[in-house]
Design goal:
Blueprint lengths: L5 H18 L3 H6 L5 H10 L2 H20 L16 H18 L3 H21 L2 H8 L9 E4 L16 E4 L5 E11 L6 E8 L11 E7 L5 E3 L13 E11 L13 H37 L1 E2 L2 E2 L4 H30 L5 H26 L10 H9 L8 H13 L2
Parallel strand pairs: 1-4, 2-4
Antiparallel strand pairs: 2-3, 3-7, 4-5, 6-7, 8-9
Helix pairs in contact: 1-5, 4-7, 5-8, 5-9, 6-7, 6-8, 8-9, 8-10, 9-10, 10-11, 10-12
Length: about 425
């Protein structure tokens, strides 16, 4: 793939126009005044038909599961045969374009969106039963319900599984009692559906060797408390908070897969891979927004009698931004091609994409602030928000340091 096709470019314009009309007027309310982004996302999904298409895909996947359960031969999904599927590649391209356009206005909206319809929905669809998919996954596809994926704990950080203290204890009636504290949970304060990841507490089993299970929780369950949103440096359009579970009683129907043999570790690895690679799209959006604003500013801002774009130091900044944009665009095209062939990245490849894209987006955004001088430090010019937003990509879904470890381990194991 060397460029977007006509349909994809048309969708890019549709998304851009929608953001300018529907998001720009309420951007400060979402970023500064604590208004959750969910009503905007519901409008986006409804007016552009995204929710309808997503729900149709979910129902189709459920019907395939039913057919397999009946022992029927199920037609392979596009991309599974190793042949290129233009439909699958196009779907990935459109999703990536939407991500990039959203990133120009608020990376936090993408974070909330991705956790709800990506991580939470994906966890249920990947390992859940048909009944679980119908009850909990389907409402997430249209933003009727908001999802949260709860893995991080106050003392765990990058060692999510090793330092995990949250537990599930079997009860005599076949259910479980859940206890624990989760933090930095995207959508945590408002989530309707929560995938809670914890360790099975068994006598005589060392904590590090315990099974890791995932449970589906609903807002308002007895013993479940959702905190108010945290105040953060950036991505303020994404509500982040804590979850407190004190003997939350659940039945086996809420255990994902309804069996203890479904280990959350393997599913989490796949989730991390998809999440990390996908950051190339949001990073590209940030870089495009910074470059657009900086070129315009360099043409209009006059110092010492000439536009600042006449100065070589400013030209170097713009040139480096363009190099970053081209590199990220090539990464994005690779991801789209991979989707077309049904090919998945290795964890090392995804980590490499995240490491580069997060670093370069942060670097470009900080240079955008510098190019704008004092104006760049003011909220009016928006580049300060882009810089604050970009920084989180070097932290969540695994810090830069964790990405380096993942890449190096893979290289050294060959």
């Amino acid at each position: 793939m060397i460029s977007y096709n006509e349909e994809q470019l048309m969708m890019k314009e549709v998304f851009r126009d929608f953001m300018e009309k529907e998001l720009a007027p309420i951007q400060d309310d979402i970023e500064q005044n604590g208004v959750p982004p969910y009503d905007f996302m519901r409008k986006l999904y409804s007016q552009l038909g995204i929710g309808e298409m997503s729900a149709a895909d979910c129902r189709a996947a459920i019907e395939r599961d039913r057919a397999e359960e009946r022992g029927e031969t199920v037609e392979k999904k596009s991309g599974e045969t190793g042949e290129f599927s233009a439909k699958r590649a196009n779907a990935r391209a459109i999703q990536g374009i939407l991500t990039g356009e959203l990133a120009k206005y608020g990376l936090g909206i993408i974070t909330s969106w991705g956790v709800s319809v990506g991580l939470t929905y994906g966890a249920i669809m990947s390992k859940g039963t048909i009944a679980q998919k119908e009850k909990w996954a389907l409402p997430l596809t249209t933003f009727e319900k908001v999802g949260a994926w709860a893995i991080t704990e106050p003392g765990s950080g990058s060692d999510a599984f090793g330092a995990m203290l949250s537990t599930a204890t079997r009860t005599e009636d076949g259910g479980y009692l859940l206890k624990g504290n989760k933090t930095f949970i995207t959508n945590g304060p408002y989530a309707d559906t929560i995938v809670f990841i914890c360790k099975l507490k068994e006598e005589g089993v060392d904590p590090k060797d315990r099974k890791v299970l995932s449970f589906i929780l609903d807002k308002g369950m007895p013993g479940l408390e959702q905190s108010k949103p945290f105040k953060k440096m950036g991505i303020m359009s994404s509500p982040t908070g804590e979850l407190f579970l004190d003997n939350v009683k659940v039945g086996p129907d809420r255990l994902i897969g309804e069996t203890e043999e479904v280990e959350a570790r393997s599913g989490a690895k796949k989730t991390f891979t998809a999440e990390r690679a996908g950051m190339a799209f949001s990073s590209l959006g940030i870089v495009e927004a910074c470059l657009e604003r900086c070129v315009k500013y360099a043409q209009e801002r006059v110092q010492f009698g000439v536009p600042i774009g006449s100065h070589q130091l400013i030209q170097e900044k713009l040139a480096r931004m363009e190099v970053a944009r081209v590199n990220l665009q090539n990464m994005v095209f690779q991801l789209i091609e991979y989707a077309g062939y049904g090919k998945e990245l290795t964890l090392a490849e995804a980590s490499a994409m995240k490491l580069y894209s997060a670093r370069i987006a942060t670097e470009v955004a900080m240079e955008a602030v510098q190019l704008h001088g004092g104006n760049g430090y003011m909220a009016e010019y928006r580049v300060e928000q882009l810089a604050r937003d970009a920084k989180i990509q070097q932290i969540y879904a695994g810090t830069d340091e964790i990405q380096i470890v993942a890449i190096a381990r893979d290289l050294l194991s060959r």
